């Protein structure tokens, strides 16, 4: 089944050239089914790149998905045309009263700041609070995962001595979980971050389940015990050249950077990296969408709030 996106979104041409089935809004109105409604809070400065990466993963499933993009209004991104945001992004005030089957909160290049020092932190907290009752299942990625673990569960992030960058081997601690259905005994995923959360902190919280770790990269996948929140510390959506582009960007700005581990052939940046994570990355998104969104979300989407157990009742709802 296709993914439904705005007719003129730049990612449409890229995906169609890759022979990915994309459905425009005009085509979708003629189908008498309810697609999954998915909201993506895109906090990355490279908006179009991130849109395309995520849509590529979401479009390769048997489900019809209606995607909307959400922006923050408390932070103005410098690297994206305001016309693009106005054309393809909504704001929290515009969707506050609506319900979504699933939501993705992306990473952001603000890891070295304390959460409270990020200029859009109050707005992000409002969105995460709202998601507890208006979104059936939320997938948090990289810094978005650390932000969600901190906001919802008080899990602190800790700094590495230097940036963690590369493609690392992982194991599933609960291989029979539907989240890892179809996975091999070990699998590889890219990471690119300056901070981490510890296994001990996750295991000490009875509302969280540690799903996957890496010997070199640490915690990879965590979920809430009720399956409503997932936290992925890496970047399954990354393209083959994303880590290379980040590496050369950092070198070019004079920051200095170590060569990403287990990425370039023979650790030579002149070589062309080969993708070793694409299939498992696709399975990860497929499994989340199928087993934790599609199979569980109510057909009447406005009943999402009724299914809440009370665990996440916030002050504004009392």
Structure, described:
Strands 1, 2, 3, 4, 5, 6, 7, 8, 9, 10, 11 and 12 form a twelve-stranded mixed beta sheet that branches. Mean pLDDT is about 90; it is low at about 25-30 and about 305-318. The protein folds into two domains: about 5-240 and about 275-315, Rossmann fold (3-Layer(aba) Sandwich), CATH 3.40.50.880; about 240-275, no CATH class. Helix content is about 30%, strand content about 25%. It is an alpha/beta fold. Helix 1 crosses helix 3 (about 45-60). It is globular and about 55 Å long.
Features:
globular, disordered C terminus, 10 helices, single chain, about 325 residues, Rossmann fold, alpha/beta, 12-stranded mixed β-sheet
CATH class descriptor name of the largest domain: Alpha Beta
Q: Strand share of the residues?
A: 15-25%
Largest sheet composition: 12 strands, mixed
Please count the helical segments.
Answer: 10
Query: What string gives the helices and strands in order?
Result: EHEHEHEHEHEHEHEEHEEEHH
Overall tally of structural domains: 2
Helix content: 25-40%
Write the layout of secondary structure elements.
Layout: E1 3-5, H1 11-17, E2 22-24, H2 25-28, E3 36-41, H3 47-59, E4 65-70, H4 82-88, E5 89-90, H5 92-95, E6 100-105, H6 121-134, E7 135-141, H7 143-153, E8 158-172, E9 186-196, H8 199-203, E10 208-214, E11 218-224, E12 229-232, H9 242-252, H10 278-294
Parallel strand pairs: 1-2, 1-4, 3-4, 3-6, 4-5, 6-7, 7-12
Antiparallel strand pairs: 8-9, 8-10, 10-11, 11-12
Helix pairs in contact: 1-3
């Amino acid at each position: 089944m296709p993914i439904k996106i705005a007719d003129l979104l730049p990612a449409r041409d890229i995906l169609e050239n890759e022979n990915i089935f994309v459905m425009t809004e005009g085509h979708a109105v003629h189908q008498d089914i309810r697609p999954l409604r998915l909201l993506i809070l895109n906090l990355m400065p490279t908006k179009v790149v991130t849109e395309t990466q995520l849509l590529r993963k979401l479009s390769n499933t048997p489900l019809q998905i209606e995607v909307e993009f959400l922006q923050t209004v408390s932070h103005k991104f410098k690297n994206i045309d305001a016309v693009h945001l106005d054309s393809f992004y909504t704001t929290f005030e515009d969707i506050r009263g609506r319900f979504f089957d699933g939501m993705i909160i992306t990473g952001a290049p603000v890891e070295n700041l304390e959460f409270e020092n990020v200029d859009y932190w109050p707005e992000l907290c409002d969105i995460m609070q709202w998601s507890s009752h208006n979104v059936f299942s939320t997938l948090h990625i990289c810094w978005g995962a650390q932000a969600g673990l901190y906001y919802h569960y008080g899990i602190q992030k800790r700094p590495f001595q230097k940036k963690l960058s590369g493609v690392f081997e992982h194991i599933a601690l609960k291989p029979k979980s539907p989240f890892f259905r179809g996975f091999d005994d070990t699998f590889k995923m890219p990471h690119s971050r300056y901070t981490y959360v510890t296994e001990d902190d996750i295991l000490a919280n009875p509302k969280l389940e540690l799903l996957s770790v890496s010997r070199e990269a640490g915690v990879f996948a965590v979920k809430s015990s009720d399956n409503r929140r997932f936290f992925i510390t890496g970047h399954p959506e990354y393209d083959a050249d994303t880590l290379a582009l980040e590496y050369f960007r950092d070198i070019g700005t004079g920051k200095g950077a170590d060569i990403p581990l287990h990425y370039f052939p023979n650790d030579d940046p002149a070589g062309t990296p080969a993708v070793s994570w694409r299939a498992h990355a696709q399975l990860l998104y497929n499994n989340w969408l199928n087993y934790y969104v599609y199979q569980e979300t109510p057909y009447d989407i406005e009943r999402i709030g009724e299914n809440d157990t009370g665990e996440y009742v916030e002050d504004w709802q009392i």
